Amino acid sequence: MNVQEIIAGLEEYWLHxxxxxxxxxxxxxxAGTFNPGTFFGSLGPDxxxxxxxxxxxxxxxxxxGKNPIRVRLHHQYQVIxxxxxxxxxxxxxxxxxxxxxxxxxxxxxxxxxxWESPSLGAxxxxxxxxxxxxxxxxxxxxxxxxxxxxxxxxxELAYGIERIATFIQEKASVYDLSWNDDFTYRRMFKExxxxxxxxxxDFADVGRNETLFNLVEQEADSCLSKGLYxxxxxxxxxxxxxFNILLARNAISVTEREKYIARIRSLAERIASRYVEALEDxxxxxxxxx
Amino acid sequence: MSKDLLFELGxxxxxxxxxxxxxxxxxxxxxxxxxxxxxxxxxxxxxxTPRRIALRVQGLQEKQADKIERHRGPSEDxxxxxxxxxxxxxVKFAESHxxxxxxxxxxxxxxxxxxxxxxxxxxxxxxxxxxxxxxQVVSRLDQPEKMHWDATGLTFIRPVRWCMCxxxxxxxxxxxxxxxxxxxxRGHRFHGKRSVHLRAPENYETQLRESFxxxxxxxxxxxxxxxxxxxxxxxxxxxxxxxxxxxxxxxSLEFPSLIHGSFPEKYLDLPSELLFKTLTExxxxxxxxxxxxxxxxxxxxxxxxxVHDESGKIRKGYESVxxxxxxxxxxxxxxxxxxxxxxxxxELKKVTFQEELGSVWDKVSRMREIAEHLVVxxxxxxxAFADVGRTIALCKxxxxxEVVDEFPSLEGKIxxxxxELDGEPEEVVIGIxxxxxxxxxxxxxxxxxxxxxxxxxxxxxxxxxxxxxGEEPTGTRDPYGLRxxxxxxxxxxxEGELSVNVYDLIDFSxxxxxxxxxxxxxTKLKIYLKERLASVLxxxxxxxxxxxxxxxxxxxxxxxxxxxxAKSLQAFKNKPELKRLADSFTRIVNIARDxxxxxxxxxxxxxxEELDLWDKxxxxxxxxxxxxxxxxxxxxxxRLLELKVPIDRYFDNVMVMAEEEAQRKNRLNFxxxxxxxxxxxxxxxxxxxD
Lengths: 290, 690
Description:
A: BirA Bifunctional Protein, domain 2; 8 helices; 8 strands; B: alpha+beta; 4-stranded antiparallel β-sheet
C-alpha cells in the first residue's frame, strides 16, 4: 500500500464515521492540533467529528535529508471526536485494519503518555500507540485547550503517516517510501528537507525572524481588540512558526524559550475565550464550528 | 449466611506506573466501606491488569445484623410534670421517634436522669447495599491523573468502559458513570472473546485465562519471570535492568509472551548506560549482559501483549525500531564527543537553573564558593580541594549534551563517562556521577568524599534557592523533590562521617543570593532540616523517638555530632545506667530551670555534700569537655554516671531553695552548671525509662 493509498484509506474510513473532512491549513503549523479544525473544533459545545491531513513543520527536527526517520516536515492524519464514543479505542483500531494492518499478528500497545502543548494552553491524558515498538499514533483525551476546560471533552487521534507507511511498506528509511507507484518520498521531499534544513539551521536571519515574530504578535493583538479571532489565530500560528525557526537557529536560550511560549499561549488563550464568548451569543445553527 | 462477591471495573489502559497503587487503594477503600456497613467477609482477593481492576470478596455476609439504636431525650425534670405524668417535651420526643411516650425508659447518666428511646433497626440485605457502596468507592477513589471522558462527570485515571458484578452467581445491576454493570467481562483485546459470560465468582481467573488474560498480578509476573529465566539461561546471559522495570512490564501486559531479538554489534561500542537506556526507554526492551564477564551482548528480550510470536514478524518489527533508535543514540554520542566535557561548561550560562535564581553557570559558581567554605570546616588537613573544584566545574556540563537532552535520567552518569574519556582524574569522574545521589528514596549516598561534598553543596544551593522563592515542600506537595534533597544532605553527612555545620552552610549559601527575604528563608530551611534530621534519625537510623528528642534538644546544625550522640545513647538503651543518668538529670532540671542572675561562686559552698559534688564535677568537667571535643560520647556518658552518687547525696541533704537569697541563687547557679555538662549529650529528661 503506497502512501497516498494509506491517506485515502484513513480519509475514507473516517468519512464513513461521520467526520467532517476538511483540508490541511494553509498557514504553517507544527502539528495537526494547530489546524483551526482542532483548536476551534474542540472548544464549542456542539458534537463534532473532523478529519484531515496536516503537513506538520518542525524546523528543529530537520536533518538535511540525511536521517532515515527524522524530518523537518512530516504528515499527520488528524481526527477529532467530540464527544468520544464509548468504543473509541475499537474505532481507532479498526481504522488500522482498514489500511491493511492485521492487528493480531502484531504487538499493539497503548503506552501512557500525557500530551501537552504549552503554546496552545492545551493538555490531555492518553497514550502513544505502539505497533511492535514503533509509535504510530498519539491518542489523547483533550482536557484543556486555549487554557479552557473542555465540556464535552474530545479525543484527538494524530496518526504519523510516515511512521505507518514505513511499517506497512517495511522500509527502514522514509525516503524509500512509495508515495504512489511512480514516485518515491525521496523524489518529493529529500531536496526540500536539505534546503529547508540549511535555511532553518544555518541561514535564517535571526533579527528578521525576531522582527517577524514581533510584528505578527502585534497584528494578532490588534485583531483581538476588534474581536477578529480568526485572523488573530492565523497570526498566532505564524508567530509559532517564526519561534520554531528561531529555535532551530539556536537563537533562543532556555529562559527566553519559556517567555516566547508564554507570549504565544497568551494569544491562544485570549482567542479561545473570545471564540467561546462569541458562541454563547449565537443560536446553534449560526455557530462557527471549526 | 454468606456469598462471594466479584466486582470488576473495565478500563482503557491504566499507566503501569500507577496501576498497583490505584488497585491497592481500591481494595483498601472497599474493605473500609464494607466494615463501615458492618459487613464481615473471610477474604478479599485483588486482581488487576492494565485494562481491569477486580476484587473477589469471599464469604461476604448476606445481610447486616439487626441493630438497636438508642436516642437520648429530655431530662426527667423536663419530661415529667409535678404529678409524674409525661409533659410535652417527653411526648414530642416519643412522637418524633414514632413511639408512645409509655415506651420511653428513664436511665441514669453522668448528667442526671434522662429519657431514652430504643429502636430496633432491621439489617439491610447486602445486595441492596452493594450498588451504592461500590459506586461510591469507584467515584471517590484517590488516584493520580484523574480525567474526564464523558458527560457524566465521573473521573478516573483512564476511562471506565465496562463493569462486571456478581454476588453469589447472580449479576448485580447498577450504573457507574454511564456504564451498566452485568455478568459479562471482556477477554484480551486481540486474542480473547469480545464478551465473556462469567458464571461464578470463583471462575474468574480460569475463564479469563481461556480468553488470554492473566488477571492475578503475581501469577502474571511469575509467568513472565519464568519465560525470562528460561531464555536467559539458554543465552547464558543476565538481564541488565532493575526489578522495578520488570514489574512495570508485568503491569503493562494482560498476557506476556517473550520475544527475543538482536541488534548490530557495532552498537556495543556505545557507553553501556546509553545502550541500556535506549533499549528500555525507547522500546521497553530488556538489555542483556554476559553471565561471565557482565559485558553487554547484542541481544534483547521483550514481551508482547498476546500469544507467542510464531511468524517472527513482531521480533522483526522490534529489531527495526531498536536499530533506528540505536543509530540515533550513536549519532548523539558521537556528536557530543566532538568536544571535551569542559567545552560544554560555557553553554551553562544559557541554561536557566530556575527563574530568578540565574543560570546553571551561576549555580556552579555558588557551589564552588559553598564548597570552599565547607572544606575549611572538614578539619581534614590532607584533603586537597583541587578535585572538588574540578568536579564542580564539570558536574553540570552534560546538561547541554545531546544524550542528556534525549535521556534526562542519564545526567551525571554520561557526564562521568565523558570525563573519563577526557582523561579527568578518577576522583572527578566518580564525583560527577555520585553528586546526584541519592537519585531515589532507595538509592545510596555518595561514597567518595568528593562526591559527598559536591552532592551536599549542590543540594543545599537548590534548597535555599527554592525556599527563597517560597517553594518549600508541604505535606502533600513537593514538586521539586526537595525532601529527598534534604534527606540526601543529612544522610550524606552521617554516612560520610563529615564534620560540617549545616546551619552555618545554609547562612553562607543564602548570602550568595542577592535576593530579599534571605533571612526568613534560611530560618525556614533550618527548621525544615531539623524536622528532616529527626525523621532520618528515627526512620533510617532506627533510633528510638525519645533518644532522638533528647539529642535534637541540643541540635546546632552539626549533624554528625547529633548522630553520634544518639548512637551513644542508643547503646545504653534498656540498660539500668541510662535510667540512672536520666533520673539524675531530671532531678537537676526539676529545680534548675531558668537562668539566674550572677555567677556560681564555689567559695559560698557550705555543706559536705555540696563540696563533694563540686569536687567531683570540677574533676570530671575538663575531661568531659575533651571527650566532647573528640565526640567520644559513650565515654562522656560513663563520666557523667560517676556523678550519680554525689548528685543523689546532694539532693538528699542539701536544701537548694535556701531561705537566704544569695545562697539560693548560688546553689541554682551550681545546678545550672551541672545541667550544662549533661546537656553536652542532650536533654536526658526526654528519655523514657520503665
